[in-house]
Design goal:
GO terms for molecular function: metal ion binding; phosphatase activity. With 235 residues, the chain is of the alpha/beta class. It has eight helices and six strands; from the N terminus they run E-H-H-H-H-H-E-H-E-H-E-H-E-E. Strand 2, helix 6 (137-142) and strand 3 form a beta-alpha-beta unit. Helix 1 crosses helix 2 (46-64), helix 1 crosses helix 4 and helix 2 crosses helix 3 (76-83). It is globular and about 55 Å long.
Amino acid sequence: MVSPLHRYKALLFDMNETFMFGGDRLGPGEDFHATYRAVGGTALSAEAVAHGVGAAVAGFLADYANPALVDDFPSLREMIARHSTPSRHEIQLLELVIARHEVGVVPQWAAQVLLTLARSHRLGVVSNLWAPSHHWQPELRRSRVASVLECQVFSSDQRSIKPSPRLLLQALGMLDLPPQEVLFIGDSLERDIAPAKALGMATCWVTACGGCADVADFCMPSIAALTAAPTPACG
């Protein structure tokens, strides 16, 4: 057990690479045209689909690294339209293609960790996404974790991305808790740990590096460590 969980009334999680894995399959080796056909596309060639997806991803990565855009981040549909010139219908199809490649899987072990923690703590998720968040709901429901995530805050539902404090403040407001009663758990020092710490939350960095950065209060190789020992009930 890496942290005294009884100190906290709620646990906020990042999602991708924290309890959902295998997403962001957006590299050049992916068969985007097969996905395009699977969602009903017929008009665009494989080259056109690859260009549309690749240009949108490159644009997102550039904007993601721009600190001036953390509270004015474009939507996926805006990004596709900015970097390619398909019709409105084709933009919608390319959005579906990217969404299908961005969504990952919640493995059974990770789902069980969240279900176990929900017996003693209020749970929530605060995560950066590119595609609209409704694309993640089937996987969250399939894995049964949707039912225990009392608070769900996703960047693609608005124009802010972590490390902006707006998403974290929204989650605190939904929980109606002060930051001192919340532990934030995530895999990114820049986008999870630092902004949560700045607001006064305790933080737990999920990292395989084996060392704990000065900014994080706790660290662990996997969220499985949260249930490695019996979790005390909230006080």
